[in-house]
């Protein structure tokens, strides 16, 4: 089989078997024959200029990737272009108002940039192209306004724009195939993700990106469009999973764990590094502690603990670390009774191959003080890549 190549914004990650925010959007594809090229914040509008007929910012980058990776008809089955969701969520309503045009007209400007870009790429490389239409927009019932996923306009307005985008690209690609004989197709699941322009939040991981159930619908839609046009069934691309090593390796699991604190003095509660110099901060109390829940029995490889970066290193001088499968039966695995962390030198706790699996890590002070640390990193022995 030839490869399937994906280009797009964070919504492209789903085609590599990755889920946002659980998995980083630029995580390696879990499927052997699928390459995902994630373009952070990529707008459909910035792919192609229909007036000058020249590539714009993201179009130039995609063409460069195609050339650098030496993608051609001999090694690629098709490209999937995943663009438009960010445009609709942030631009479609705003630009319709700014330009005094209808939502439909605003959406057509966005869609035409993507469609013209696909025509350009097909003409140059003669490789099938599938446009993956935007998913339903984020819903305030799941995700209120969030600067990470900004929205402009109401949910109903944005979902109307999403619906029109899907209809417009479907009609346009049908016309392109009949008039130019370009193998450009359009597919999506907007109709399954919304009802009366309200988003069905059960299909979303974080209110914006699809979860497992949504991904199943996406694959079904890809199969449907392929069957409709007598193309090969693409199911094999999603059954050949490439996620296991032959032997275990050390894998960082920091981003997957959950944190709870005995108290919280500041509006920061995480274990990854933060610009403030500390990743969490308790109140002044007796034996303050942080509980890290891995949520399964992990075969830990190591824990790396950094002290606060800028000052008050002495507050963590009586640090203790406990680990175990249940909170009521934890074992002390590390203790220190001195100031540590100068020059950002961390505590490193190593687990050998015979160490018992554990779900919980509890970091506490054997003292009455504030507990604040710079960063905590967790690694497990894993067969996952």
Quick recap of the structure?
The protein has helices at residues 57-68, 85-98, 103-125, 155-179, 190-193, 212-228, and strands at 3-8, 34-38, 48-49, 54-55, 76-82, 128-132, 184-187, 194-195, 198-199, 244-252, 258-261, 280-281, 285-286, 289-298, 300-307, 319-324, 331-335, 347-350, 358-365, 368-369, 372-384.
What does this structure look like?
25% of the residues lie in helices and 28% in strands. By secondary structure, the protein is α+β, with helices and mostly antiparallel strands. The strands form six sheets. It has a five-stranded parallel sheet with strand order 2-1-5-6-7, with helices on both faces. Strands 10, 12, 15, 18 and 21 form a five-stranded antiparallel sheet that branches. It has a five-stranded antiparallel sheet with strand order 11-14-19-16-17, with no helix packed on it. Helix 2 (85-98) packs across helix 3 (103-125). The two termini are 23 Å apart. The mean pLDDT is 94.
- The mean pLDDT is 94
Low-confidence stretches: none
The major pleated sheet works out as: 5 strands, parallel
Q: Largest sheet, order of strands side by side?
A: 2-1-5-6-7
Shape: elongated
Question: What features would you highlight for this structure?
Answer:
single chain; alpha+beta; 6 helices; five-stranded parallel β-sheet; 21 strands; 385 residues; five-stranded antiparallel β-sheet; 28% strand
């Amino acid at each position: 089989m030839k490869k399937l190549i994906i280009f797009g914004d964070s919504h492209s990650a789903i085609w590599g078997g990755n889920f946002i925010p659980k998995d980083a959007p630029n995580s390696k594809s879990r499927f052997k024959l699928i390459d995902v090229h994630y373009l952070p914040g990529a707008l459909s509008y910035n792919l192609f200029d229909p007036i000058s007929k020249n590539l714009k910012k993201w179009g130039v980058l995609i063409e460069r990737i195609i050339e650098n990776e030496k993608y051609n008809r001999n090694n690629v089955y098709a490209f999937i272009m995943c663009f438009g969701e960010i445009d609709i969520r942030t631009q479609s309503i705003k630009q319709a108002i700014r330009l005094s045009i209808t939502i439909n007209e605003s959406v057509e400007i966005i869609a035409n940039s993507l469609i013209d870009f696909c025509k350009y790429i097909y003409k140059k490389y003669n490789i099938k192209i599938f446009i993956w239409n935007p998913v339903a927009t984020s819903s305030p019932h799941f995700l209120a306004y969030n600067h990470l996923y900004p929205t402009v306009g109401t949910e109903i307005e944005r979902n109307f724009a999403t619906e029109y985008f899907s209809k417009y690209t479907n009609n346009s690609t049908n016309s392109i195939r009949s008039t130019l004989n370009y193998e450009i197709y359009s597919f999506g699941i907007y109709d399954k993700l919304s009802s009366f322009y309200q988003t069905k939040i059960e299909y979303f991981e974080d209110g914006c990106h699809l979860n497992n159930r949504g991904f199943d619908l996406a694959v079904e839609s890809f199969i449907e469009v392929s069957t409709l046009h007598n193309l090969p069934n693409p199911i094999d691309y999603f059954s050949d999973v490439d996620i296991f090593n032959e032997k275990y390796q050390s894998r960082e699991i920091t981003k997957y764990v959950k944190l709870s604190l005995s108290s919280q003095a500041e509006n920061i509660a995480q274990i990854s590094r933060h610009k403030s110099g500390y990743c969490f901060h308790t109140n002044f109390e007796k034996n303050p502690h942080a509980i890290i829940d891995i949520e399964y029995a992990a075969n830990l490889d190591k824990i790396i603990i950094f002290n606060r970066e800028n000052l008050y290193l002495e507050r963590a001088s009586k640090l203790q670390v406990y680990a175990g499968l249940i909170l009521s039966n934890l074992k002390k695995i590390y203790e220190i009774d001195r100031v540590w962390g100068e020059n950002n030198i961390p505590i490193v706790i190593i687990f050998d191959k015979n160490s018992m699996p554990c779900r919980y890590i509890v970091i506490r002070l054997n003292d009455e003080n504030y507990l604040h640390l710079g960063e905590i990193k967790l690694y497990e022995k894993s067969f996952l890549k």
